[in-house]
Amino acid sequence: MSWEPTPLEEKRLEKIEELRAAGIEPYPLRVERTHTSSEAIAAFEASEAKPGDDASEIEATLCGRIVSQRDMGKTVFAHIEDGYGRIQLFVRREAIGEESHQIFRKLLDLGDFVQATGALFRTRTGEVSLRVSEWKLLAKAISPLPVVKEQEIDGEIVRHNAFSDVEERYRQRYADLAVNPDVREVFKIRAKVISALRRYFEDHDFLEVETPILQPLYGGAAARPFTTHHNQLKQELYLRISFELYLKRLLVGGIERVYEIGRDFRNEGVSFKHNPEFTMLEFYAAYWDYHNVMDFTEGMVKYVAEHVLGKTEVTYQGQTVNLGGTWPRLTMRDAIKQFAEIDYMEFPDAPSLASAIRDVGGHAPAGAGWGKLIDGVFGDFVEPKLIQPTIITTYPRDISPLAKAIPGDPNHVERFEFFIAGMEMGNAFTELNDPLDQQKRFEDLQTLYAKDDDEINPIDEDYLRAMRYGMPPNGGFGVGIDRLVMLMADKATIREVLLFPHLRERGEG
User: Cβ distance 63 to 30 under 8 Å?
Assistant: First the structure.
């Protein structure tokens, strides 16, 4: 086999054989548990608080991983940890017998899972503990977990990460979770964020749906897809880059408010805020425009913060971000004028705009269209400055093919994105529902983008057919849940809020 046991792992393998020789199965079939660690402590403290109750009569059977162990000879003190906290085991030779006590001392290690039964009591130092009367091994750990070092600084215990290589934490997330309670807390926050979002949408009469992940055509975003092949159907398929075109088909079908939470896949670069596989929430509401969506979005983010953190003021990477109140709203043109000192309307074509961008030290890729240049200068000069929640409106038409045009303005559409902590968090439109205009926009994009441009989308004829049946006016929106969790959990990189982020192969640059 490819696994080569270390000397320490060899010793633990030998202990497995000794356990079996003693009639103890290291991986038994059945488990019993009467309390979690937190339930046991709460029950004991509640009994202590009642006059006349004898808290020492409370018995419990607990299960967990051994995370600390002190062998005092006749007595072993060990802490076990479950998903709800930790509790101390008080293992005395007189209580469990010589043989059982010796096995516990000699053959159990940090990382092993055990079941322990006994009476709860409080030690002289005030710690609620379990006086063990019997125990059972549940799972023998062969590989030792990384060691977390604890240091007392100014009266507080500071934990030092067990991994010297941060990428190894992501590669071995199971070990990372096992030894770092704060990492487990991040993913509890993530679950709470998604739960709060669902409650918010349910309270506003939205229907949650699931649309195809494997699609015969990709669309709804400017991104390069992952491609796969269905052998039996002999058909090229794509992992979706957006839910949009399928969700809007449902508006045609008479579902007026619809949303989906799920995975999107984009075959593009990775960064502190990008992963090839990520979680999105998209919604569409009939008879709304982007003003309705702005108000709804403000309420949604505040609701999530209140339900997850209990407040609307959060700290992100040392900066205080106030999610409450009314968020500022700026047009893209005004924002770029303010932060980059360019009025892009003075440069009506791509070559002149590219020259102006380069003059102020910005990046203007060769061959980029007018709208993409505007979007690029915004990302370079404006986005990093938007720390407090800000809504940016009125985007160039040629990078917003699914949004309604602003009456009397051939260059812009009713689109907004909102930004928090220097990150784009979500994107929204007054959705285009004119099938003839939509078809022309799709066709225009085919000529606007270079033939080899990764972001060009094929024309979705079935979506156009759906629109021709009649699509109600609507507002739509997409928010990156991973980035929202980064904000709520105060994490600087998306890898900290994904259980298993995509990583390069070991040894690659």
Answer: no
Do residue 133 and residue 263 come from a single domain? no
- In the numeric block, the tokens 């899972």 are attached to 113
- E-strand ranges in 30-127 read 59-71, 75-82, 85-92, 113-122
Q: What is the pLDDT of residues 251-303, one digit of tens each?
A: 999 999 999 999 999 998 888 889 999 999 999 999 999 999 999 999 999 99
Please identify, among 115, 144, 173, the residue that sits at the C-terminal boundary of a domain: 144
Facing residues of 214 across strands?
Answer: 239
Per-residue CA distances from 196 to 104, 182, 304, 391 (Å):
44, 21, 6, 22
Return the SS3 of 307: helix
Q: Note whether 134 and 63 are same-domain residues.
A: yes
Entry pTM = 0.91
pLDDT average, residue stretch 85-107: 97
Phi then psi for 419, rounded to 5 degrees?
-130, 140
Q: Which residues are 419's β-sheet partners?
A: 390, 424
Q: Rounded to the nearest 10 degrees, what angle do helices 7-21 and 98-107 cross at?
A: 160
Enclosing domain of residue 78: 7-144
Q: Does residue 2 sit within a domain? A: no
- Range 220-225, long-range pairs (CB < 8 A, 24+ positions): 220/244, 220/245, 220/402, 220/457, 221/264, 221/266, 222/399, 222/455, 222/457, 223/266, 223/267, 223/268, 223/454, 223/455, 224/266, 224/267, 224/268, 224/454, 224/455, 225/265, 225/266, 225/267
Are 402 and 244 within 8 A, CB to CB? yes
Residue bearing tokens 């990046």 = 363
Q: Tokens standing for 507?
A: 């040894």
Q: Which residues contact 240 (CB under 8 A, 6 or more apart)?
A: 211, 212, 213, 214, 215, 218, 220, 225, 264, 265
pLDDT for 48 equals 87
Residues 118-151 pLDDT 10s: 999 999 999 999 999 999 999 999 999 988 666 5
| 106 & 194 share domain | no
Does residue 265 form part of some domain? yes
**Are both 139 and 257 inside the same structural domain?**
no
Tell me, yes or no, whether 65 and 189 share the same domain: no
Say yes or no: 297 and 393 in one domain.
Answer: yes
CA gap 14, 107 in Å, rounded: 9
Q: What is the CATH number of the domain that holds 248?
A: 3.30.930.10
Element (H, E) at 451: none
Which range, of 50-64, 93-107, 379-393, 417-431, averages the lowest pLDDT? 50-64
Strand pairing partners for 261? Answer: 281
At residue 382, the 3 state secondary structure works out as coil
CA 88, CA 132: separation in Å to the nearest integer?
Answer: 10
At 144, is the secondary structure helix, strand, or coil? coil
Residues 6 or more apart whose Cβ sits within 8 Å of residue 93: 74, 75, 101
* Length of the chain counted residue by residue: 509
